[in-house]
Design a protein that fits this description.
The complex is a heterodimer of chains A (563) and B (82). Chain A is an all-alpha fold. Chain A contains 22 helices and three strands. Classes of the chains: A mainly alpha (563), B mainly alpha (82).
Chain lengths: 563, 82
Amino acid sequence: MSASLPPFAIFFAGALLLVLLHGRLQKTLLLLVPLLSVALLLGVPEGLVVKVQLLGYELVPYRTDRLSLLFAYVFNLAAFIGIVFSLHVQDRIQHVATLVYAGSALGAVLAGDLISVFVYWELAAVSSVFLIWARRSPRAVAAGWRYLVFQFLSGLLLLAGILMRFHETGSLAFDYIGLDDVSGWLLFTAFGIKCAFPLLHNWLTDAYPEATPSGTVFLSAFTTKAAVYMLARGFPGTEILIYIGAIMTCFPIFYAVIENDLRRVLAYSMINQLGFMVCGIGIGTSLAINGAVAHAFNDVLFKGLLFMSMGAVLHMTGKIRATDLGGLYKSMPVTTGLCIIGACSISAFPLFSGFVSKSLVMAAALQEGHHWVWLVLLFASAGVFHHAGIKIPFFAFFAQDSGIRTTEPPLNMLLAMALAAVLCVTIGLWPAMLYNLLPFPVDYSPYTVTHVLAQLQLLFFSALAFTWLKLSGLYPPEIRSVNIDVEWFYRWLGPRAVARMTRALDRWQVYTRIGFLRHLGTLFGTLFLYHGPQGILARTWATGSMVLWVVILLGLYLVAYYY
Amino acid sequence: MSQERQHLFDKPENVRRLLRVLYLACALLLAADLFVHRHVEHDWESLWGFYAGFGFAACVSLVLIARQLRKLLKRPEDYYER
C-alpha cells in the first residue's frame, strides 16, 4: 500500500500543513517533507503503474521507470538542498509555494498520462511565480507577470496538443510522441517554451534573476529540467533537436560575456547547459540519452550551487551586479571556495561532475557523425568555462576590490552549498554512482588519458585566453547596462505599437461609427448570407478545428490582456 | 579600515605567482601532446595541440565578437522602465 503512495502527495500535504505551523515546527516540517518523500521513492519498484478511472478516462497519475525515477531522485535532492538554503527565510508564502512547486515538478515527471502532466504543468507555473513575486519589488512583480504569460502559453499549447492527440488516437498515454502531426508539434512547442528553445527563451533570463535569492535556486532546478524530461520521453531521436540544442549551447554565451547582472549570466549559462541536454535527446542513441539525463541531474546540482553562491552574495550585500561587486573572497572565503567548486563542475573539469556527463553527449555526437555539431559543442564548452567558470567567481569574489566588507552567509546557506558541492565532487570522483541510475546500461569511461588531457588543454588554454584578454585590456569592461534580447519585441516595440494604434483608432472611431450606421442595412444582408440557413458559418465544424481556433483566440486574448 | 590585514591577492607577487603557475601548466599540457598517444574518434583531434589551440581561439573569438555585439545590444539600465 505504502509503495503506491506517491511522493508528491507528501509535498502537497506538507504545503497544506505548513499554513498552520510557525517557527521551529515549520522548519522541521519543511525538512521532513523531502526526506519522507525520498524514503517513499527508495522503496518504490521500477515499473510501477498506478491507474485511476476518472469520468471514463484512464489516467496514470503515478508511473515509475528508470527515466522518471532518475528525475524524481534529483528533484527530491534539489528540494532538500533548496529548503536547507531557504530555512532562514521568514516568509510563509515562499515556503508554501516551494513545496507546491517541488511537488508539481515531481508529479509531472512521475505522471504516466498527458492530462496529469498538464495539471502539474499548470500547478508548477502558478506556484513558481510566487517565488518571483516574493521579492516584492515593482520590477519583480512585472517580471513575474511576463513569466506567467509564457508559462500559460506553454500550458495552452500543451492542452491543445493533448486534446487533438486524444481526438486522433483516442489515447492519453504519455510515451513516444514524435513530430508526425500537428498535435505533436503543439506538444513539442509547449515543452520547448519551458525548455527555453531559442527565441522562446527570454522568459527565463527575464524572470529568474528577479526572483528571491532562494527562489531562483528552486526555479533553476525544476521547470526546465521537467521540460527536458518531457522531451526525453516524448521526442527522443528527433533530429531537429540536435540543431536546436547546438544553437542553445552557443548564442547565450555571447550574452553571458557582456551581461552585468551575475544571476542573469547564470540564467544565460543555464540555456547553454540545456542545449547540451536537448542536443543529446536529439541524437537519441542510448549513449546520448544517458548523457542528456545525466547532465540534467548534474546541472541541477552545480547550477543550483552557483545560484546559491550568488544568492548568498545578494543576501549578504544586497548587490548582484558585477560592477558593484569584487574582492569578496576577503570576507566570504568559504562561499568563494564553494562557488569555485560549482564553477569547476559546470566547466567540466576532470574530477568534477560536469566532466562525467557532458562527455557522454560529446562522444555520442562524434559517434553518430555529427562533426560540425561536435565542434559547436566544443566551442560552447570552452565558452562555458569562460563565462560561468571564470567570470562568475572572478567578478564577484576577486577582480577589483569593491570595498564591500561583509560576513559569510547564515549557517543553513553554507550547509546547503556544501551539500551540493560534496555531491558535485562525489559524482565527479565516482561517476559509476550516477551511471548506475541512468536509463540505459553505460559502457563508457570518462577517465581515459586521451580524454582528460584533451579537456585539460581546452580549459587551461581558455583560462590563458581570459588572462591574455584581461591583461591586454581587450576584455570588455563590465558596464551598468541591459542588453536587448527577444524581449525587446514585447517590452519595447509592443507597448509602443499598441499605444500608437490606440491613438490612430481614437481618431478614426468617429468616422467608422458614422459609416457603420449608414451601412447597417447592407451589413444585415451580409450577415444573413453567412449565418442564414444556407450560410457558410451555419455549417457543422470538426471538433479539431474548433479546438485550434479556441486556442488561437485564447492566445490572442492572453497577449491582449498582457498589454 | 587601514588596520585590515593583507589578503592573498593584495600582494602583486602572489598574482604573478598564480599567473606563472598557469603559464607553466599550459606549457606542460601542450608538451604532453608530443608524448601521449591519443585514441581519437576524429582526424582533427590528432592534430598537435588541437584542443589547446581550439580552446584559446574559441575564447578569444567569443570575447571579441561579444564586444562587437555590445554595440548593437547595449542599452541604458532603465531602458524598459522609461
